[in-house]
Design goal:
This protein has 105 residues and is α+β, with helices and mostly antiparallel strands. It has helices at residues 10-34, 38-47, 89-94, and strands at residues 51-55, 59-64, 69-75, 81-88, 103-104. It has a five-stranded antiparallel beta sheet. The N and C termini lie far apart (42 Å).
């Protein structure tokens, strides 16, 4: 059982959720950087409860609604990817109006 000195409410619970969200985002970034094959990335995202919003030959978008994370992969011909972006929905909302940016691999 987990005990705290503070009442669990907006502050502490939000901090725990944010830490969990960031940990998963780091895990996904490391996975993408170390795995050149998209089929392996797809399997890993599914195992982490991500849902494919779009999975086309040129772009793949995966979301995790509970953690409010999305993964965007710009695909190359042949199954690899040209770039990616892992971000929280909140990060996207803050950058509203800016163009999408890919982190080059």
């Amino acid at each position: 059982m987990f005990y705290t000195r503070w009442p669990i409410g907006g502050g502490m619970l939000e901090e725990i959720e944010t830490l969990q969200q960031r940990a998963v985002m780091v895990e996904i970034e490391e996975l993408i950087q170390s795995t050149p094959d998209y089929a392996d990335i797809r399997d890993a995202l599914r195992s982490l409860n991500f849902i494919p919003e779009q999975d086309d030959a040129d772009v793949a978008i995966w979301v995790h609604p509970a953690l409010r994370i999305f993964v965007l992969l710009q695909m190359n011909l042949g199954g690899g990817y040209a770039g990616y972006r892992v971000a929280a929905y909140d990060d996207l909302e803050r950058r509203e109006g800016e163009s999408a940016v890919y982190n080059a691999r």
